[in-house]
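Journal club prep, notes for RB
We'll compare a predicted complex against what the paper describes. Inputs for the nicotinamide-adenine-dinucleotide case:
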Amino acid sequence: MTEAEERDPRPGEVKLKVERASICGTDLHIFQWDPWAASRIVPPRVIGHEICGRITQIGAGVTGREIGQLVCTESHIVDPEDPDLQQGLGHVARSTRILGVDVDGGFAESLVIPATNARPVPPGVPPEIASMMDALGNAVHTVMAGPVGGLTVLITGLGPIGLFAMKVCEALGASCIIGTEVSPYRRALAERMGASAVIDPSSTDALCAVLKVAPGGVDAVLEMSGHPSALELAISAVNPGGRISLLGVSSQNRVEVETNEIVFKGVTVQGIVGRRLWETWEQMEHLFTHLNLDVSSIVTHSMPFTEFNEAMSVLASGEAGKIVLEF
Ligand SMILES: NC(=O)c1ccc[n+]([C@@H]2O[C@H](COP(=O)([O-])OP(=O)(O)OC[C@H]3O[C@@H](n4cnc5c(N)ncnc54)[C@H](O)[C@@H]3O)[C@@H](O)[C@H]2O)c1
């Protein structure tokens, strides 16, 4: 922890007093300074991109934001003139810079961001939940990339985003939600949260176990582990005509899979990145306001920001859902 210069907002930006920040796996990679972090981050950099705070200053030309307003952050900063954004492809826009990675983030007392990236917190959502909206948005984007109402869904990987996806599927009326997870702590969390079945793929034949719960297969698979064996399971377990939505990032660039099974079952495989700008944020507001989405059980730890060393080691142990830092 160190001192950094604060700055005033430029035109189009707002300044926030940070209230809560939650920790993402990316922050842990940076904290551990692994090869990805060392090749991507140019220090000095204030890290942290899942933030909730109150607006304290507003730059010239900003409309629709007020001093004192509680906001949370979208971490993908896209040039407003980017043709990708203008074609509705802001989530994959080529001008994207990431908060806390490419520009200074919010594990700090204050943060300056473009006003469009400061999203008003839906009424009734407390700051600690609001700080997780960026990660929740990954789950909402993945779940809502196809239908789930009345359908059987398999979620591979029940880290925080997989657990969020479980709650979103439940709120949207999925008839059966099956999860796979190798961590006993996270399996227990998912069971307490009401999953229809939670399978340990490291000790059982996961395909058999899925087919026992969903004879014939599942309608949708949400891949949220990044593990190659989960993709293999997804292809075998999905119904003809089903969909596989891939959010998990694999540490290997090349993974071998049965492409003929994808072809002959007529499966749709789609990549999911970030959140749709700004449709996913509107969907999240709808989920909280009208469908009683409750993700509070996924916050397993809250601690003062000064205990960031402890927070990072708890996250590294895997014995956590979401960890929120209080500022
Ligand atoms: N595409 C995007 O925009 C985007 C954004 C954020 C995160 N991600 C990726 O999404 C994934 C989920 O994010 P997270 O924050 O929940 O990550 P996480 O690492 O906390 O969760 C992944 C979970 O998968 C579990 N797992 C590992 N191998 C497994 C297997 N074979 N079968 C089932 N589960 C297995 C792990 O135990 C872990 O709990 C990660 O791969 C992350 O890198 C992608």
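Talking point for the session: The pocket of nicotinamide-adenine-dinucleotide is lined by residues 25, 138, 156-162, 180-183, 186, 201, 224-227, 229-230, 247-249, 272-274 (CB under 6 Å).
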